[in-house]
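User: Fold this, then the next.

Assistant: Folding the first:
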Amino acid sequence: MGWVIPPQDNSQFVASMEQVLDVYKRPYSKEFPLICMDESPKQLIKETRIAIPMKSGQEARQEFEYERCGVSNIFMASEPLKGKRYVKVTERKTKVDWAIFIRELADNHYKTAIQITLVMDNLNTHKPAALYEAFEPEEAKRVWDRFEFVYTPKHGSWLNMGKIELHVLMGQCLNRRIDNLKIMKEEVKAWETHRNNKDAKINWQFTTQDARVKLKKLYPSIYS
C-alpha cells in the first residue's frame, strides 16, 4: 500500500494528520468507540472457460479471458482497538448508500454507544449532507448526533486504518473472480465472522512525534 505525500509546507495536511493521530491515541471505550471506515469498488467477473484444477506436478491454470458482470461496492468499518469489523456489499456507491451504512453502524452494531468517532477519507459522499438526502430531517440529525466525524487529509488516506482492514479483505477473501453479488455477500460475511472470532487487531505505530521527524518537510517554517 503506497503512500502519497503532498508537497512540502502543507499546513492543512499536517493539521488534519495530527488530529487523526491524536484520535488514535485514545484508549478503548465501549461508550465512545473509535471506528475507521473505508470503501472500495469491486469488479464482478465471470469465467468464460472452466479453470484447470491443480494436479501432481502442475499448478492450477486459469484462462485470461473473462466477462465483466458489473461493479459492486464494499463498505468497511473497522474497530481497531477491539479487533472487530463490519462489512457491507452494495450495488452502488452513493451518498444514500453511505448514509444507510453508518445508520446501521449506529443502530445495530453500536446502539449502546454514547458517541462514535468515525475516521474516514474526505470524500464528498462522506458528509452530513448525505444524511439529509437519505432520511427525513429529524432522523438525519439523530444519526448525525451519534457521530464525531474525523477526516483524513487529502493525499493522506494511508492514515485511515480502515484501509488496512480493507486490504486484508481483498487479499484473503476477494482475490479471485466472483461474478455474483449474492455469492460475494456470502463470502464477505463468512470472512467477517472468521476474522471477528480471531479478535484481529491493528497495531498502529505511527505517532505525531514520528510525523514531525519523518515528515518534517510538510511542516511550514514559522521563521523567516
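Now the next one, as you asked:
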Amino acid sequence: MTQQIPAGTFRFIALDVETACSDASSICQIGIACVGYDNQIQQYTTYINPHCRFSRFNIQLHGIGPDHVVDAPDFAEAMISLSPLLARHHLIQHSSFDKRAMGAAHDLAGLSVPPWVWSDSVRIARAAWPEFKGNGGHGLGHLKQALGLEFTHHDAGEDARAAAMVVLLAEERLGRSFDLILRR
C-alpha cells in the first residue's frame, strides 16, 4: 500500500529523519506530520535509499537496514515530491538534528539547501514545561512518559507526529500559538 503525501495547506509540519549511520547526510527515513487548522494530523513516512553503509548501532536503534531501503527513492528523488509541500510551511523539528541532516543530505545530493523556516519543539516544550529541566528533560523519550504520548520512538513518522503533539499540547497549556510561544 502506497502512502499519499498530504495535500493542502497546514498550520505547520513536523519533520523527523532517521539515518543509516553517524553521518548526518545518511537519511534512510523521512517522516512528516502535517497539522491542519483544525489541529488534525496527517502523517506521511517514506524510506530513503542513502546509498551508504548502515551502522549496527543505527540499525539497532530504529530497526531500518539495507533491505528496507533497497527499492526506496534516493534523497533527491524524494525531494522532488516533498519539497513543494515543505517549502510552503513552517517546519518543526525536535532538536537541531533534523534541519542539520536535511541540509547535509541536500549538499551530498548536489541540491541547494532550501530556505525553509524551522522551529524547534524542544524550545516550545521548555517554555511549556520548565519543571522538566533537570527532571527528565525535554527529549521525546521523557515527554512520551510525562505527557502520556503514544508513539513508536525512532520511527521518523511517529517521532514527527510526537513532535507535533508536543507543540499542540504546549499551545493548549500556555494558551497561545507556537509562534507566540517562541517570541517570548
